[in-house]
Amino acid sequence: MKIRNTVAAAFGAFALVLALPGSALSATGDFTYKYVTGLGHEERATLHDPHSGKCINLYAVGDDDVPAGYGPHNQTDTPVTVYRGSSCTGDQWRLRAHGNPATDQLEVRSVRFDAPNS
């Protein structure tokens, strides 16, 4: 009887652990920004559920040799720091979670979403 109770308790604990969400490695939601293509067309790029805690050079604008992106909009559940330079360098600004779109005057090349528990 004791073995059966022990096994049942262990199984119940294991099932509970599986039901809990894993550690949050990503912000949930979308981060968008605008950029101009080599042909002069304005495009919008989206990071969906972006990775948290590491620097992300943004698509099409993440190199200091191309025009920067602009007008970032953080629609994720995590605050983000946006950087004017690539590899999270240069001037920086914080955008809050679920914030309003930033002005088109705010240039961006790279971002870092807050790591969990920060």
Automatic annotation (TrEMBL):
Give the signal peptide, or none.
1-26
Q: Which UniProt keywords apply?
A: Signal
From the Swiss-Prot or TrEMBL record, give the protein name: Secreted protein
